[in-house]
Automatic annotation (TrEMBL):
KW Glycoprotein (keyword) present: no
Protein's recorded name: Uncharacterized protein
Keywords noted in UniProt: Membrane, Transmembrane, Transmembrane helix
Superkingdom to which the source organism belongs: Eukaryota
C-alpha cells in the first residue's frame, strides 16, 4: 500500500533535520504530524470506492426517474392528466432504491468541500420532495397491512434524513465552499459577500428543504389515516349501486344494454378508484404546492451558484460522480414536479363546488368524518395486550386516550388548513349539470361533500368510447368471425355427443364448452389429407375462439364441478394448439399414411383413449399435482366423441373421406363456439364487477376492451339465440343439448337434465 503524501512529508522532515541550525523542537513538532498525515493517506486509500458508490447513487436516482417518466407516459397515453401511480409506488423495493438515492443527505462524515458537492447534497433533498409528492396517490392502492408497513418505512427513511441533515447543518458539513471557510479563518474580519459568497445560503436552503420534507411526511400520514375509512365509504356506495344494477337486469342483455352496463361500471370504476379519490383530496393539492416550492428553491440555488458550478469543483471523496448525481437528480426534480403540479389543476377541474359555494363556504371548517374516524376507532378500542396489574392497564388506557386525542387535533388542524386553501381556489367553478348526464352522475362514487364536474364526466365517457373504438378497429378477431359465419344453427351442440355411448371412466364428468372444442380440434389436426393452408387457417380460428370460450366457461361456470374440466381443457389445448400433440402423440403421426381411412383414424383415437382411462383406473392417484384426473377427463371426452362420430356415420363409415370428416367436425366446432359465445354479454357484464376496490378500475377497463373486441360477434349472434331457452340455462352446454333434443317441452323437462 503506497502512501505518497506520508513518504513525501517524511522526506521533507529528514531534509529539514539535516540542516544544522534548525532547532530540535521544530523537528519534533513536524514529526508529530506524521501520524495524522498517515491516517489521512489511509482514509484516502479507503475512500477510493466512493467514486463508484456515487455512480450507484446516480443509477438508483435514474431508476426512480424512469419510474416517474413511466407514470407520466401512462397518464398521457390513457389521457389521465392526474397521472395515477402505475410504476412508481411505495413498496419495499422502491423504498430500498430511494434509500440508496438518498445516500448523500444521510452521509454524516464525508466532507463536502466543493460547491458541486454542496449543491448535490441539497439537490438530493429536493429530489426526495419530488418523489414523495409523486408517491402520495399510491398509498390508496394498498390494503391496511401494506399501508401500515410502507408508511412506517417511509417515516423511518424521512426522519433519518431530516435528523442527519440537521446534524450536518450544526456541524458545518452543509455550509459554503471550503475555500471560503479557509479564507475566513485566515482573515476573520473579511466579509464573504465581497467574494460573491453568502455563507448562510446553503444552510437556509437545507432548512427550507427539511421543513418541506416534514410537511410532506405529515401529509402522507394524514392521508394514510383517511384512506382506510374513505375506501370503506366508497366501497359501500359501489356495492349499493352494484346490487341495484343486478336487480334492474332482467332477461338477456342486448348489445345496447351491455354498453350501458359497461358505461355505468366504467364511471363507478373510474370515480371510485382509490387513487382518483386521493387525487381529489386537498392533501394531494397541498403536496403539489410543496413540491413546486421545493423545486423553485432548488432551481434558485443552482442558478445563483451556476458560475461556480461551471468550474466543476468536485473535491469530495465521491469525485466527479458528484456532478453526475447533481445533473441526474436535477432532472429528477424537474420531471418529478410535472405530475404533482398537474394533479393540483386536475383536482380543481374534477370537483364542482356546489356544496362548497356561498353561503355554505363556512363548511370548509368542518372536516369530513373519514379523516379522523380511524383515529377515533383506535381511541375507543381497548389495548389488545392484557396486563395483570389493573393500575397499569388504567394508566396505559389514559395515556393512549391522551395521545390519540392530540393526534386527532393535529389531523383536524392539518386537514382544515389544506382544505381551506383548496376550496378558495375552486370557488369559481360552475354549478350547472346538463340533463344528459343526470342519469349517469348518480354512479359517481365521490364523497358526499364533493361532486364531479361535468367536463370530467364527459372525459370519462370519451375515454371509454375511445377504448372501445380502438379495440373494434385494431383487435377484431377476424378469424373467429369467419368460423362463426360457417355456423347456420346449433345442431353441432347436440351431435358431438351421444347418450348411447357408454362412459368408460369410473366417474361421470360434466361437460364444459371448451373441452369438446379442443377434442374435436385434435381430430381435425390429425387428418393428413387436408391442405396445410386450410388446416392452418382453421387452427387460427379455433385459437381465437378458445380465448373467448374459456372466458365464458370461467365466468359463468365457476363452480368446483366445472373447474377441473376447464383446467383439463386448457392443459390439453396447450398440447393440441401449440405443439400439435395429443397425450404426447404427434397428431400428424397418428395417421401418417395419406391413404389411411377415416374409420382407422377415429378408431385409433378411441382405442388410445380407452387405454389411457384403463391405465389411470389401475393406478393410484396422488396429490394435487397428479395428472391422472386430467388424463381421465380428456381421454373420456375423446372416446365419447369418436364413438359418437363413428356411430353417426356407421352406415357408410368406409365411404367417408377425410375432407367430409373435416367439414363435419369443423361445423360441429363452429356450432359449439357460436352457442357458447351467445353468453358473451353476460360474461362481459360479470367481468365489470370486482369485489376488491383496488382492482375495479382495471377489471372494468378489461371488460370495455373485451366489449370493443367482441361487439361484432355479439351483434352477429344476437338474432340467432333460441327464444324458448331459459335465460339461466344459456351458460350450460348440457342444457343446450337437452333443449335441442326436445325444444317443445324443454321448459318443463330442463330441470330433469341437471347433472348429478
Amino acid at each position: 500500500m503506497a502512501f505518497n503524501s506520508t513518504n513525501e512529508y517524511m522526506g521533507a522532515v529528514k531534509r529539514l533535520a539535516s540542516i544544522d541550525n534548525v532547532p530540535d523542537g521544530v523537528i519534533g513538532l513536524f514529526t508529530n504530524y506524521t501520524m495524522k498525515i498517515y491516517r489521512s493517506d489511509e482514509e484516502s486509500q479507503y475512500s477510493k470506492p466512493m467514486l463508484w458508490i456515487g455512480m450507484y447513487i446516480a443509477l438508483a436516482s435514474l431508476i426512480c426517474i424512469f419510474a416517474m417518466v413511466g407514470d407520466l407516459y401512462h397518464g398521457l397515453r390513457t389521457r389521465k392528466l392526474w397521472f395515477p401511480c402505475k410504476y412508481f409506488k411505495i413498496n419495499a423495493a422502491s423504498l430500498t432504491v430511494i434509500g440508496v438515492a438518498m445516500k448523500l443527505p444521510v452521509d454524516l462524515s464525508a466532507a463536502m468541500p466543493g460547491n458541486v458537492d454542496q449543491v448535490a447534497k441539497l439537490g438530493s433533498m429536493a429530489f426526495m420532495c419530488s418523489m414523495m409528492a409523486n408517491l402520495l396517490p399510491s398509498l390508496a392502492t394498498m390494503c391496511s397491512e401494506e399501508l401500515l408497513a410502507n408508511i412506517v418505512g417511509l417515516v423511518v427513511l424521512v426522519i433519518t434524513l431530516v435528523v442527519n441533515i440537521c446534524i450536518q447543518i450544526a456541524t458545518g458539513v452543509v455550509s459554503n465552499e471550503e475555500k471560503d471557510r479557509i479564507y475566513k479563518m485566515v482573515k476573520p474580519g473579511v466579509n464573504t459577500e465581497s467574494l460573491g459568497t453568502n455563507e448562510n445560503l446553503n444552510k437556509i436552503t437545507a432548512t427550507i428543504q427539511v421543513t418541506l420534507l416534514l410537511m410532506l411526511l405529515i401529509i402522507h400520514i394524514c392521508s394514510s389515516l383517511a384512506i382506510l375509512k374513505s375506501k370503506q365509504s366508497i366501497d359501500s356506495k359501489y356495492q349499493h349501486h352494484a346490487r341495484a344494477l343486478k336487480d334492474q337486469q332482467s332477461g338477456r342483455l342486448t348489445l345496447e344494454g351491455l354498453k350501458q352496463h359497461v358505461t355505468k361500471y366504467w364511471i363507478m370504476g373510474g370515480t371510485g378508484s382509490p387513487q382518483f379519490i386521493t387525487v381529489c383530496s386537498a392533501t394531494t393539492s397541498a403536496s403539489g404546492v410543496i413540491c413546486v416550492l421545493s423545486t423553485i428553491t432548488h432551481i434558485y440555488t443552482v442558478l445563483i451558484t451556476s458560475s461556480k458550478l461551471k468550474s466543476k469543483n468536485c473535491e469530495s471523496d465521491y469525485q466527479w460522480s458528484m456532478l453526475v448525481i447533481l445533473v441526474t437528480q436535477f432532472i429528477g426534480v424537474v420531471v418529478g414536479t410535472i405530475a404533482p403540479l398537474s394533479r393540483c389543476f386536475a383536482a380543481l377541474n374534477f370537483k364542482m363546488s356546489i356544496k362548497r359555494s356561498w353561503p355554505n363556504h363556512i363548511n370548509v371548517f368542518e372536516i369530513e368524518s373519514y379523516w379522523i374516524e380511524k383515529l377515533s376507532d383506535w381511541k375507543k378500542s381497548s389495548i389488545p395486550i392484557t396486563f395483570r396489574s389493573y393500575k397499569l392497564t388504567v394508566v396505559l388506557e389514559n395515556l393512549k386516550s391522551i395521545i390519540l386525542s392530540f393526534l386527532i387535533e393535529v389531523q383536524e388542524v392539518v386537514v382544515k388548513n389544506v382544505t381551506c386553501c383548496a376550496s378558495d381556489a375552486g370557488l369559481e367553478k360552475n354549478t350547472h349539470q346538463q340533463e344528459n348526464y343526470e342519469d349517469l352522475s348518480q354512479y359517481v362514487l365521490l364523497h358526499e361533500e364533493k361532486e364531479l364536474h361535468e367536463k370530467t364526466l364527459k372525459s370519462l365517457l370519451k375515454s371509454m368510447n375511445r377504448l372501445i373504438q380502438k379495440q373494434a378497429e385494431k383487435r377484431q378477431p377476424n378469424n373467429l368471425m369467419r368460423l362463426l359465419k360457417k355456423s347456420s344453427g346449433f345442431e353441432g351442440v347436440e351431435k358431438f355427443d351421444n347418450d348411447h355411448v357408454p362412459t368408460i371412466s369410473s366417474k361421470k364428468y360434466l361437460d364444459c364448452w371448451s373441452l369438446p372444442v379442443v377434442t374435436l380440434t385434435a381430430i381435425v389436426v390429425s387428418l393428413p389429407n387436408i391442405e396445410k393452408d386450410i388446416a392452418k387457417e382453421f387452427l387460427k380460428s379455433v385459437s381465437e375462439a378458445f380465448t373467448y370460450v374459456t372466458l365464458v366457461d370461467e365466468s359463468l361456470n365457476a363452480t368446483s364441478d366445472y373447474v377441473s374440466i376447464q383446467k383439463a381443457a386448457k392443459k390439453l389445448w396447450l398440447e393440441v394448439g401449440i405443439y400439435h400433440k395429443w397425450f404426447g402423440h404427434e397428431l400428424n403421426d397418428s395417421a401418417s399414411e395419406p391413404e389411411v381411412s377415416v374409420r382407422d383414424i377415429l378408431q385409433w383415437f378411441s382405442d388410445t383413449a380407452k387405454d389411457i382411462v384403463t391405465k389411470v383406473g389401475s393406478t393410484k392417484s396422488g396429490g394435487p399435482n397428479d395428472d391422472s384426473i386430467y388424463r381421465s377427463i380428456c381421454a373420456n371426452s375423446m372416446y365419447r366423441i369418436t364413438e359418437t362420430v363413428m356411430l353417426s356415420n356407421q352406415a357408410n363409415i368406409n365411404q367417408v373421406r377425410q375432407e367430409d370428416l373435416f367439414a363435419q367436425l369443423s361445423s360441429m366446432i363452429s356450432d359449439i363456439v357460436a352457442a357458447c359465445l351467445t353468453n358473451l354479454p353476460e360474461a362481459i357484464a360479470l367481468k365489470c364487477h370486482s369485489s376488491k376496490i383496488e382492482k375495479r378500475e382495471a377489471d372494468v377497463h378489461a371488460a370495455a376492451q373485451l366489449f370493443g373486441q367482441t361487439k361484432q360477434i355479439i351483434k352477429l349472434l344476437q338474432g340467432r339465440e333460441p327464444q324458448s331457452l331459459n335465460a339461466d340455462d344459456f351458460p350450460f352446454i348440457h342444457k343446450w343439448r337437452a333443449y335441442l333434443r326436445h325444444p317443445s317441452n324443454f321448459r318443463s323437462s330442463s330441470k330433469e337434465c341437471d347433472p348429478e
